[in-house]
Each structure stands twice: as structure tokens, then as C-alpha cells.
Specification:
The protein is mostly beta strands. 6% of the residues lie in helices and 49% in strands. It folds into two domains: 30-121, Immunoglobulin-like (Sandwich), CATH 2.60.40.10; 131-225, Immunoglobulin-like (Sandwich), CATH 2.60.40. Strands 2, 5, 6, 8, 9 and 10 form a six-stranded mixed β-sheet that branches. Strands 12, 14, 15, 17, 18 and 19 form a six-stranded mixed β-sheet that branches. Strands 1, 3, 4 and 7 form a four-stranded antiparallel β-sheet that branches. It comes from Maribacter algicola.
């Protein structure tokens, strides 16, 4: 009788145990083309196009990946879905691109994106415009606290294959787009403190200029001061 009761209890514990909820996918680590580099491994398709192979590390809880590649100059986007950790796309030679990979799990709705990396697809170009500055903080639509001096620190990173960045221009205002030139800084500057008011939304962008007169814009970012 005791054995029967024991079996019934075990069945009640283990037989009725719920399955674990499916876990969301994790973020992949990008491998190639490398960040802020010139990709020289593309396979020629014709005089203007080469096929570039992208690769990344496999991520946990992931059924498929979506590769998203954007031509920075034209804002043209190409996407491809795969279960592999590599995929290739035809790209224009001598053009700047950004790329990222989204992880998907068929059992959950949410996806997660990798970091976004920039690169140039090799071509006949001998000089390169700077990559658009990467905004680090505050991130898009972030809600932030001001410091004791009623200031918020803006931070970014800038890169140029030619390593000839001459200056950084930071535009900052309560209007969108931000037209006020807050500061013109040296090529090594990566932060700027700005005065802010609580309960206010601000817009900002970073323009990077090089010795050849090329300029790129980070795009407009916003944050709200609590």
C-alpha cells in the first residue's frame, strides 16, 4: 500500500509538472566583415558589384537569424533570413555599409539584435569618408537624470579608415532637427557636457569631418531629462 501511495505522489509531482517557458533568443557576436574596416574579400559579380559573405557566432535559444545590411550613403536595406551563421549579399563596390544580425526563436515573439558594425566594401576608392559617429550615451529615447551641475554628458565614438578626422561638430537643441551648433571639437573628442532642464526632451547629432572635406552625420538622437 505504501508503494502505491508513493507512486501516486511521484506521479502528482512529476506528471503534473509544467514545462519550462521557452527562453528568448540571445544576441549574436559579429565576426566578419570587421568593425570599421575595409572588406577586401568580396567576390566580383561585375564592374560595380561584389558578393560579400557575412559571419557571426551562433547564439543560444535561436532558431534563425536575420542579416540586415544597410548602404549608409543611399539608406538602401537588404535582408536575408537563414538558420546558418553565414550569409552573402551582393553589394556595391566602394560604398560604406552597416550590418547587424537579429536572433529569432519560433516559440517567442521578441527578437534581439546584435551590435551594429560599419565597413567599406572594397572598390576603386582610395580615400574614405568617416563612418557616421556611433552614439553611445544617452541612447535613443533614453530617460536620464541631470548631474549636480544641471548637465548631461553626451558621448560617442568616431572612426575613419584614413585616420584623418579633423573635427567633430555637435548639434543640440530642444527642436527636431537640432540646428544649433553646440560645439566644434577636435578629432579626439568623444564627450561633451550640455546644460539641461528637467522634464525636457532634447535632440542631438554628431557630424564628423575629415581632411578631404568629407562629412558624415550620426543621425538624430533624443533623450528626456527626468
Amino acid at each position: 500500500m505504501r508503494k502505491i501511495l508513493l507512486l501516486v505522489c511521484l506521479f502528482a509531482v512529476f506528471g503534473c509538472k509544467k514545462k519550462d517557458d521557452p527562453k528568448p533568443p540571445e544576441r549574436v557576436l559579429l565576426l566578419f566583415p570587421e568593425k570599421n574596416s575595409e572588406c577586401t574579400t568580396g567576390v566580383d559579380q561585375d564592374a560595380t558589384t561584389s558578393r560579400v559573405t557575412f559571419s557571426w557566432q551562433r547564439s543560444d535559444n535561436t532558431d534563425s537569424y536575420e542579416l540586415r545590411v544597410t548602404n549608409i550613403s543611399s539608406n538602401t536595406v537588404q535582408t536575408i533570413s537563414t538558420q546558418s551563421t553565414t550569409a552573402s549579399l551582393p553589394l556595391l563596390k566602394g560604398q560604406p555599409y552597416s550590418w547587424l544580425v537579429r536572433s529569432r526563436n519560433n516559440q517567442v515573439d521578441n527578437t534581439i539584435s546584435s551590435e551594429q558594425w560599419n565597413f567599406y566594401n572594397a572598390g576603386s576608392r582610395t580615400t574614405f569618408a568617416p563612418f557616421p559617429a556611433e552614439i553611445l550615451a544617452p541612447s535613443m529615447s533614453e530617460r536620464v537624470f541631470k548631474d549636480i551641475n544641471n548637465e548631461v554628458t553626451l558621448s560617442w565614438s568616431a572612426s575613419d579608415l584614413d585616420d584623418d578626422i579633423e573635427n567633430i561638430e555637435v548639434y543640440f537643441s530642444e527642436q527636431n532637427p537640432p540646428l544649433n551648433l553646440e560645439a566644434a571639437l577636435s578629432d579626439v573628442a568623444t564627450t561633451l557636457k550640455v546644460s539641461v532642464l528637467s522634464g525636457t526632451t532634447y535632440y542631438w547629432s554628431v557630424v564628423t569631418r575629415d581632411a578631404e572635406g568629407n562629412a558624415t552625420n550620426s543621425g538624430i538622437y533624443s533623450f528626456t531629462v527626468l
